[in-house]
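Rather than argue in generalities, we have chosen a single entry, letters for residues, whole numbers for local backbone shapes, without further comment.
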Amino acid sequence: MSNKIKETLQEEVERVKVLTEEAARSGAYLYPLKGMVFFATHRSLWRPLMARLVPTMSLSAGVLAFMFIFTYLPQAAVLSLFNGPLAALSTVFLTLSESSTIINLLSRNFLIEEALVDTFDGTLVAMDKTHIVAEGRQINAGRHDAVGKLGKLVKKPFEKFTPTAIIRYFMYLPLNFIPVVGTAIFLTLQGRRAGPTSHTRYFQLKGWNSSRRDEWVREHQAAYTGFGVVAVLLELVPFASILFAFTNTVGAALWAADLEGSGTTAPKLKEQAASAE
């Protein structure tokens, strides 16, 4: 039984290694960092964040305080049985990850969902991709700044945080019992889920159905994982996680704009339209 577990773990480590190498070659992991720079230099994109800053910061502070006061020590005690002296560090990552999940679940569903959509759409407008945004909302042509041009939503935005995502998260939690390697695999799996989610709005604006989205994500799984891992790590930073949620959204929009500029997503969309006719 123990040999089977070791073999499974070795296979997972090898799979993560290959995925990491492909993600590094794609360069998609740089987009969260590009998003930070672009956000900092485009003040009009600050408005959606500033409008939600106080309630989201209060939520983050409350969740982090609760999790570290009531869950850190019990989890550290359990992890110390498996990780030894590394348990303290592993538990910090685990507690931050749990807190980030709770904060994302609550904030994205109740506080910042539309603000993130405005940020994504505003970034596309700032990148001269207004024609894409016009597929999902009205455009105020008379305004000059990117966010000011955004009118009423025609298509409802991002997907809600699904029960399936929560179940998978708790399924992956035991990986943290494995020193260092387990935490790395856990973060990679979280990134693999978070990456495609960052382009949910883009897929919606493109008018892709679920099969077309799944096909695209499979073809670019490594790139999305690279983006997702960096985004997840940034959103683990206490109190700054909400800020990084917005800069990651900007990064995802910059990536989408580059895909549009390169025509990468265009051929199969045309084929799909032709087959529909």
About this structure: The longest strand covers residues 150-153. The beta strands are 137-139, 150-153. The chain has 14 helices and two strands. Residues 2-26 form the longest helix (25 residues).
